[in-house]
Amino acid sequence: MEDKKKTLKDLETSKADTLKVLDGLLEKLGESLISRMDKADSVPAEDKSADSAAEGDSPSVLLGEKKRILKEISDSEVLKNSIEADLFNLGKLEDEINKKEREKSEKSREIPPDYSEMGRLILRDPGFENFTVSFKQALNNITGKIDFQQKKMEELDNSDNNILTRLGNGVKGMMTKASLTKNEAELEKLYRYAGEQFFVGLDNPSSGRISADEISLADEGEIAALKKKGLDLRDLQVSLKDEIDRLRSERRETAQALDQKGNPTRRISELEIFITRSTDEIKKVHLRFGALVRSKKWKNSFAPFTEDEKTIYDKVAAIDETLKITEAKIEFTRDAITIDNQKAEISKLNDAINDKRKRIADAEKSIAELEGQIADAQKIIDELTEKHGKDK
Q: Rounded CA gap, 7 and 334, in Å?
């Protein structure tokens, strides 16, 4: 019994493996035949009848199904590639924006030192009196304080007094130095502001902040070099800002286009799954097409086979014969197992019958004993009844 079950399992495994090989061959045969029919752009004469259309699968039906699936795959791949291209472009735009912003930031740090130097030069040059007049009062006020504090520092350093006086001078010196440092920082800030405003005036000559003579004078000497460098940096900053704005606008448009297609990552995953499933559907169409040719009707429609197709078809025929033998063995083994099971069931039922018969025999014996006891009891009753009847 167990040997037969093992034999059946082995036969079924062998059948499953053989069917896989058969499906592979039919798929390959179907792919070759459907491709040949597609290239020839014609269908078998038998496929044009109404009866053929009512039968379900036919060469033209399967070719149409394959073309539909291929178009769906192509459309999905185009959409997937489009989303991937947008994502790549979005990342590229982000990198370019960051690069341009870093460059703009670096160039911005190059300008402030030039502001200070430009301010220092024009505030010292009497040729820029028209522009610097608004800064003169603040300049004189700060430089006056600085001159006073520097002289005070010299006096404190050169004083030759007793220890207590020197200690007091030390404290005064620290306070004076702190004030001097503060005013020197204010002077640097004034130079920088004046230089910055001078560049603003150069950017907009019509404002009148800088006279024509001053504009001409700015094209000479050190000021000319600073002017050129500053304006070049400003032009570059403007150019960078415009480029950053353009890139941000393009990034926004690309992001909006992606949003309209749904979550990009999830959408790509869904499309990849769909393409994989559709590719599997193509294989099933090839398999069904190959299976058609197993019937005499459709086999003759594609004759003559190519050499490769004939080789595959012959292998299919050989496997069909092998499957028939295997299925016959499976059926025989299953029937043998069924017979064994029925015999085992009969044996089991006979055992149950014998058990019940034994129980019946035991019960009948018990009944007979009980009936004997009843008869004995009745006899005693009859005897006693008879005895007392005579006494009356």
A: 10
Q: Which amino acid is at 377?
A: A
Over range 26-38, report the average pLDDT: 91
pLDDT tens per residue across span 85-129: 888 888 898 999 999 888 888 777 666 567 788 888 888 888 777
Residue 56 has which token pair? 């379900």
CB atoms closer than 10 angstroms to residue 25: 20
Close Cβ partners of 199 (under 8 Å, ≥ 6 residues apart): 115, 118, 227, 230, 231, 234
Q: What is the pLDDT of residue 180?
A: 82
- Could you tell me the pLDDT band of residue 335, with boundaries at 50, 70 and 90? very high
- Evaluated on CA atoms 92, 96, 97, 102, the torsion sign reads positive
For 207-250, what is each residue's pLDDT tens digit? 666 777 776 776 677 777 777 777 777 778 788 889 899 988 88
